[in-house]
Amino acid sequence: MWQRIQTLYLLIASGLLVAMYFHPYGTAFIVLFSIALAAQLIAIVALKSRTLQMRLSNLAALILLGLQIWLVLSFFNAETPASLRITDVFPIVAAILDFLAARAILRDEFLVRSASRLRASKRK
Question: What's the total number of domains in the chain?
Answer without folding.
Answer: 1
